[in-house]
Amino acid sequence: MSLRGTTAVVGIADIHYPRGKAPVGERGLVLQAILEACADAGISPRDVDGFTSYAGGDHSGPVLAADLGVRELRWSSMVWGGGGGGAAAAIGAAAAAVSTGQAECVVAFRGMSQRETGRLGYAKYYFDNNYLPHGIATPAHVCALRTQRMLEHDGVPRSAMRNLVLAAYQHAQRNPRAAGYGKPLDEAGYNASPYIVEPFHLFDCSRENDGAVALIVVSAERALAMGRPAAYVLGAAQGAPGGYSALNENDEPYTSAGFVDSSSGSGVASRLWAEARMKPAEVDVVQVYENFSGPAVASLIDHGLCPPGPAAAEVMTVENLTAPNGLLPVNTSGGNIADAFVNGMGLAAEAVRQIRGTSTNQVDGADTSLFIGGPMAPLVSSVLLGSEQTL
Fold first, then answer.
1. Residue 369 to residue 329: CA distance in whole angstroms
2. DSSP 8-state class, residue 91
3. Reduced to 3 states, what is the DSSP secondary structure of residue 381?
4. Exposure b/e, 250-275, CB count within 10 A at least 16 = b
5. CB-based contact 276:4 (threshold 8 Å)
């Protein structure tokens, strides 16, 4: 059984504030996002009958169902794995619930309020025993290890990371909601910024925000009957390579973002393309989770969108990565780096906007839009969205 074309995202909401500046707490932000997504879809919040999320959020389906007064709760699930690796998997779980008839209208969501959850720079819930005894205390440390190996051993040029960041900032200049709006960045400014953890400069690192994002998933038949632009789920995959999962310093190949598995010849990326019955070259626009720029480059390589090694320089140019005319437009809202960071879920909303034709950096004729969840995490995930013409 395949998910291809059986479900669609029909409503989205993407709200964010500077770190610690949200007027309400995390639960309030999540409820606001769900209400806005329902209004966007033209449905009553009481018609929602399922909830999916990821990354250890505290707000379960039964709690949200009570707050919203839903008529019947039929689905409530959390994607395990930590970090943003499960971001796309939350959408896949919502699609699976609807496709199999377990629910009819599922919200995939994430909310963050740092007054409640603290800073993300020290994530002890994940790093406790695997890393802290060795002096590795932050996500930046962890991702720097594999990124430095990618640069030194695989020969991926540092310019690939820099150009991804510069493209994100170019997109942010046309997105008035982006944190980087009105703050252009050039190569000299990037190079002059301090190292946070080598090889990551300041601008290689994602932002931290308060906010919430929600996406409404229904059946494809219902979406077509609604008569409004929808983003159809063409494929979704989640998992971890090897057999080590949370012990991901044992991943092989070590420089991957976790979307390939050399031991099995399979992996998240290959399963995604197989389910979608599409090839990487058929993707029009990409939203790739960049907690740091290096893992994002590794994600593009894992998905076959960028060649490995020195040849990455041919694809990873600012011109190629920038909408509307680039060969591979990436993170067209500004992404986690230049727009906002709500554990990466804002990228999913932008993936939907591209299919709808409503992005501030719209790619002309975008029929396929790929959202890649958090890389180099214990579990990673991807989802490919398409227009009605792709069904």
1. 10
2. H
3. strand
4. ebebebbbbbbbeeeeebbbbbbbeb
5. yes
Is the pTM value of this prediction over 0.85?
A: yes
Mean of all residue pLDDT scores within the chain: 93
What's the order of all strands across the beta sheet hosting 50-54?
Answer: 75-79, 50-54, 106-112, 209-219, 7-18, 231-239, 380-386, 368-372, 285-288
Residues 6+ apart with CB under 8 A from 200: 140, 143, 144, 147, 292, 293, 294
Q: Which residues pair with 212 in a beta bridge?
A: 15, 111
Query: In the predicted model, is pLDDT for residue 49 greater than 50?
Result: yes
User: Residues with Cβ < 8 Å from 181, sequence gap 6 or more?
Assistant: 172, 173, 175, 334
| C-alpha–C-alpha distance, residues 296 and 204, integer Å | 10
Give me the residues paired with residue 285 across strands. Answer: 369
**Is there a contact between 119 and 324 (Cβ–Cβ < 8 Å)?**
no
In 3-state terms the chain splits into helix, strand, coil percentages (rounded to 5) of 40, 20, 40
- CA dist., res. 281 & res. 284, Å (int): 8
The two structure tokens encoding residue 187 = 């190569």
What pLDDT does 121 receive? 54
Contact (Cβ atoms closer than 8 angstroms) between residue 331 and residue 167: yes
pLDDT of residue 125: 47
Q: Are strands 368-372 and 200-201 parallel, antiparallel or unpaired?
A: unpaired
Place of tokens 């994600």: 299
Q: Angle at the Cα of 369 (from 59 to 306), degrees rounded to 5?
A: 110
* Nearest by Cα to 113 from 208, 203, 47, 197: 208
Mark out the alpha helices in the chain (DSSP H runs): 26-41, 61-68, 87-99, 114-117, 124-131, 139-149, 158-172, 187-192, 220-226, 268-276, 293-302, 312-315, 318-321, 335-338, 345-356
Q: How far apart are CA 350 and CA 332, in angstroms?
A: 7
What residue has token string 């069904």? 391
